[in-house]
What does this fold into?
Amino acid sequence: MAGVGGPDLPLEASAIDSYASATDAPERSLTIVARLQVSLAQVLQGEEALCETLDRCLAVSRYLLDRAPAWLGEGLS
It folds into this structure.
């Protein structure tokens, strides 16, 4: 994901497969968290632009959504 979001966008990823019972299909979840320190005062004064950071977060989200069917085993024969 660093190739999409860039090396200065620190991402934490976790994935979980949960089973209600042994015969049920897994319920899968993926959590991505990015943490950056941002000065609220600088944002309010227009000195800190978040647009680029939010655009990179969007790019990571789209990357993951585009690849979700393969990870879930959908469309494979």
Remarks:
- The beta strands are 11-18, 27-34.
- The two ends are 27 Å apart (CA to CA).
- Helices lie at 2-5, 40-44, 51-71.
- The longest helix spans residues 51-71.
